Amino acid sequence: MPSSSSVGNISDALSRCEKKEGVLTSILAYARTAGLDAHSFLGNFLVSIYVDVGNLCNARSVFEKLSSKNESSWNSLAIGYVKFGEPQKALELYETMGDDSFLLNEFGFVALLKACTALGDLRYGVHLHCEFARKSFCQESVIIGTALIDMYAKCHMPIMAQEVFDMLPDQDVVSWTALIAGYAQHGYGKEAIRCFELMQKQGFTPNATTFSSVLKACASIGALDKGSQIHDEILGKGLIKTNQIVGNALVDMYAKCGKLDKAQEVFDALPVQDIVSLTTLITGYVKDERGRDALTCLAKMQELGIPADVFTSVACLNACGSILDAESGKKIHADVIKKGLVETNSILGAALIDMYAKCNMLDNAQNVFNKLPNHDINSWNALISAYVQCKCKEEILAFFDEMRLKGFTPDSITFVSVLNACGSIGTAKRGEKVHAEIEEKGLLQYNLLVGNALVDMYAKCGLLAEAQAVFDELQPLDVISWNSLIAGYAHFGDFVNVLHLLHCMKCEGIRPNSITLISALNVLIHEGLVAEGELFFSYMSEEFDIVPTLEHRTRMVGLFGCAGQLEKAVSVFDDASYPSDIVMSLMLLSACRKCGNLELAKQAFKQAVKLDEKDAAAYICMGDMYRDLGMLEEANKVEKMRVRKGAWKHREIFDGLIS
């Protein structure tokens, strides 16, 4: 029997060793030689010490030798398994407790719930909830209640999270934050904001985590006004200067709400500009179709000496694809190969495939796919999407079938790409089969991305009743849902439904974005509603605070041009807010031909050729105008110029639109 003095000496040494594993090893060797490692008090103490330094193997070894395990060792080991990334072992440990389960304290139970959360094991989480309820822990412990809220929220069960919250005897800022975060993470932005407001009414002060969660909610539903109000609260508390997570959440909120200038302003004010804030800003610029600004951020990142990680590289490849900058994309490709990232990250490989496809370099995209060491669902999705972008109709569905033959199960991204293909090539019957499979898997109940793709597919196939039916099933809706349906009605000239949906969007608190407004302008052009278009063009900036883009201005040139209102078309064309592009120049040239204004047509032609001398549309339109006026010699000169420049890229001009 070890003497109490020996045990005391070892315990004292352990307490003073500052948890240094080398010292622990020496002490344990001495304890084992002296026969002290199985001593009940000392052994239980050793388990806790080993867990603290992350040596779970030794902790379990000592634990198994103990004839009498106490509360400290059971709880320490369970907590340690979760803390150091072995959640399954924590649950297995609980299964071995048997009659000793009463020894688990609230921190041990919280660890088990965190294990279920990490594993996404809702079934076992519900089992633990029943155990806690039987032992009345839920009613007595806010800590356990909060962990339950977090578990249900992260396992896609926000309603259960709310029920647990409502049953808590004492709600605190941590439980409120867990509920808000749960709603925010799963797209229930309105509910998250409602909880945030109710929490404040009940006198609870939000902490940094609360603010970052509710900002995520604002970002998810485009609640810019509420996000700006929360920004003011954060400024009042000085949190941007002290909490990087809150600062990054603000950048993200403004970026996702389409206010990139404000996002940049917040970013510039951050005391530390880290890889998260930079990647957030880059992603925001890409989403807002400002790829060049995204690459400027990448350059700043390189100036700061911050190495791009996988997520940043993916965002920048998306930027390159959006602006057809294959050269910058190739540089990023070379960089990630040098770092050995492509071989270990399928998402990066997928981004490379996507970038090359968008730059119309399908052979390069296929080559990246072929060189990947292992194919997975991400790489297959990227390849299918690449062929969708390049409009290779037969190959898209063939790859989908091949992927399945090789044992890969389609995920939501696969379905989105295939639905995109069905919509692009008008194969409604195949789309309906995919829809049936999606229904069978229950994806529509929780995957908005798939739902939006279904709406888009039916709309592009002209099945607007089916598109509306799917739209009506979706919950919650986002701006993409609305855009898909509005674009469908717009494409088929249903002006009444477009305006009705825009009104409904406003009532639901969803801000239209530039894509929404392009669809609306297309309808107005198609219908020749010039006065309404002019009113709408000014309305979108005044009502929705959206700065007209080059695309909006191009459509206005087309609208005025089709109506023969050349002066107004020129006024929009000459607006210095954005430089004119080839499409706008062609719009103006087409309008000049329609109005018979030769001098202005010459200027528009000169501008178009300057922007893209290989584009055939300018030569065709100018030549046709000369022929209309009987100026055959001038028409022949234009044709010779076209041949000399090798201008064979063809672009159709119809109804004031360019395709």
From TrEMBL:
Protein name: Pentatricopeptide repeat-containing protein
Keyword set includes Repeat: yes
UniProt-recorded Gene Ontology molecular function terms: RNA binding
Pfam families reported for this sequence: PPR (PF01535), PPR_2 (PF13041), TPR_8 (PF13181)
PPR repeat placement: 70-104, 172-206, 207-241, 274-308, 376-410, 478-512
Keyword Transferase: no
Residues annotated as signal peptide: none
Record InterPro entries: PPR_At4g14850-like_plant (IPR046960), PPR_rpt (IPR002885), TPR-like_helical_dom_sf (IPR011990), TPR_rpt (IPR019734)
Organism the protein comes from: Ceratopteris richardii (Triangle waterfern)
